Amino acid sequence: MPVSGKADRWLRRAGKALGGVAALVIVGAASMWLAVRLTPMQSVSAAGQSVKVGATQPGWSLSGPGELDLFGETIATRPHFDGPIRPRLKLAHISLGSQVDDAARGGGELVPVLSRRLASGWLHYCLWESLIAAGCAAVIAVAVAGIRRASRRATLAAVAAAVASVCAVNAVGIYLLASGTPQVLRRVRTLDDLVGRAPAKNVPAAKGPAMPDVRVVVLGDSTAAGIGNRPVDHPTATDRTCGRSADSYAADLAAVNDWNVLNLACQGATVTDGILGVQTRGDDMIAPQLAVAQRATSASALVVSVGANDLDWAALTALCAQAPVCDDKASTAYFTKQIAAFSQDYLDLLQQLAALPHHPHVLVNDYYDPFGEDTGCLSKDGVTPDKAKVLRSRLSDLNTVLEKGAAAFHFVSVRPHFDGHGLCSEQPFVQDSADRAPLHPTAAGELAIALADQQALTGTVGTGPAGGTGSAASGTGASPDATP
Question: Per the structure, how many domains does the chain have?
Fold first, then answer.
């Protein structure tokens, strides 16, 4: 046979072999991509805490952080993991009651048992991912063989080759390159270890006499304080500093139900500066709201309104009104950073609420939509329909964090609706830019929030001595807002 003929045959065989290898690589990559998307996260539990273990989407780097899904917000883990596929962890549920270890419930500790189970969950996930990837490879190979009308023998050979190549790639990509992942996960003892921060200290009860006649306690920010509306009767210095109103939803709940409702909310309060920590306003130092709330030893329910100040919502809204657009890269990145940080502070708050010794029913209030469908009157303030849409989307993101966090701890989330009563309606539930507290609820808006809370509280609040209508601002007698 001529030399040129042998060379041509060799080239054809080589090209066919390379084509087969390329096809196997494509099938393997597609199978792994599908498998990561299709493989369910593995649930592991211990000490009443449930965490789901899965994998991030494969990347090009061979080392990097994993992901923590905390109430819908993705946070990069501080520990780095080797391999192109790294773990993704999701806080699923926190079980309360006698089944929960006190240390785990109070400090958020993922006890060593759960640390080991995180590693075990990762290995189980890898096994399932490998099986599903092999199945995807087999399906793709059969589909390609069918299109090419290959023989049964050729089809079986293609399936075997595809499955073998995918298993080999998984072995290299996961078991070899990610072999250190279980060891890293075994060192994780708290959720704070994953994000590289110190756990919050438990807030002790404030000094002072117990307030056994209080039925409901309200914690939160200016929305809960009712800022911009009528001040409370006979206000204390703290009432004035915090902007507490006689028209707040706490006051409405007290008046309608003949409950003693203790409103500790304060304008400007955040989770760390106001609820779990001391809040400074001017020359005034206000004790942590949760510390004072613990003096209400017989309270049946606790209502929380928090999040807007943690995100610097007022500043974001003002910047949006002045800027050409609201969803530019800088403001979007800032919002993403703020809401990720809030989700971690919110976890600290939820853990401490769950650890309260008298176990009140906990309600977490979502935020209302202040704009509504008609945004025509907002043009004078620089807010266009597109800008209102962006702000509404960011409020929705905040509410998602609030709702998922409440659900994880088996608390109740409440969504007040201002439908038909936005800023530009004939009867707005929201204060205008010319009012004392723009975008905050009017007296009617506070009543709408109270009605939503009332429905959620029905049947949960005790019927013991109510102390008359109570005081929805600061209780009776001496002010409970003790100076720290």
Answer: 2
Could you tell me which residue, 479 or 81, shows the higher pLDDT? 81
Continuous segment of H or E residues that includes residue 63: strand 63-70
CA pseudo-torsion sign 204, 210, 212, 214: negative
Closest CA to 413 of 425, 402, 426: 402
CB-CB contact of 429 with 448 (8 Å): yes
462 within a domain of the structure (yes/no): no
Residue 247 and residue 174 in one domain: no
Average pLDDT, the chain: 84
Whether 482 is covered by a domain: the verdict is no
Is residue 221 domain-shared with residue 170, that is, in the same domain?
Answer: no
Q: Which of the 8 DSSP states describes residue 195?
A: H
Q: Mean pLDDT throughout 204-229? A: 96
CATH code for the domain of 432: 3.40.50.1110
Q: Is 276's pLDDT higher than 90?
A: yes
Mean pLDDT of 284-291: 96
Residue 15 in any domain: the answer is: yes
Give the C-alpha separation, 457 to 300, whole Å: 9
Q: Which of 321, 289, 285, 286 is nearest to 303 (CA)?
A: 289
